Write a sequence for this structure.
């Protein structure tokens, strides 16, 4: 009787111990890799091309805004120099014209900024997808359970494998 009771207790303790350790055993069997996606992204030729196109667009928009600002400055200076000679009606009209110009400049700047964001998204979304696909391909081929970005991890243990160079090779980057 005592033996059966001890056997039952031992069985429960052993079962509880296995239950408690099973998550650790499962975790130990998972392969984890890290990758530096920022290094890969900047090394991709498509990324460099996209960045160049965005810089050219930014230059174009900056030049356009500068032209508008220069015109506004000229008209403001002309108004300040002539305002004493102007009738109230013309003075009011010119002031409104300056306010309208300033509003157009602000509106244009906002539209240009929105277009820059849209262009950046349009250019970089396929590049990021290509990078993601390459990481997934290497992760699947190597049998990794997780691939983490090295810039987002606080600590990387010795068992984590850096697959940045394998992904680079998969992308055809030297």
């Amino acid at each position: 009787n005592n033996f059966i009771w001890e056997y039952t207790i031992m069985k429960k303790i052993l079962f509880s111990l296995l239950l408690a350790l099973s998550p650790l055993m499962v975790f130990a069997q998972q392969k984890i890799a890290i990758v530096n996606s920022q290094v890969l992204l900047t090394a991709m030729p498509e990324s460099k091309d996209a960045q160049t196109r965005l810089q050219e667009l930014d230059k174009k928009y900056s030049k356009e805004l500068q032209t508008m600002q220069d015109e506004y400055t000229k008209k403001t200076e002309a108004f300040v120099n002539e305002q004493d000679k102007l009738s109230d009606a013309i003075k009011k009209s010119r002031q409104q014209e300056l306010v309208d110009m300033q509003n157009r400049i602000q509106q244009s700047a906002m539209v240009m900024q929105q277009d820059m964001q849209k262009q950046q998204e349009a250019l970089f979304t396929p590049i990021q997808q290509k990078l993601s696909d390459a990481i997934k391909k290497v992760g699947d081929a190597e049998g990794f359970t997780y691939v983490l970005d090295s810039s987002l991890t606080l600590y990387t243990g010795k068992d984590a494998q850096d697959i940045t160079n394998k992904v680079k090779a998969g992308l055809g980057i030297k």
Summary: The two ends are 73 Å apart (CA to CA).
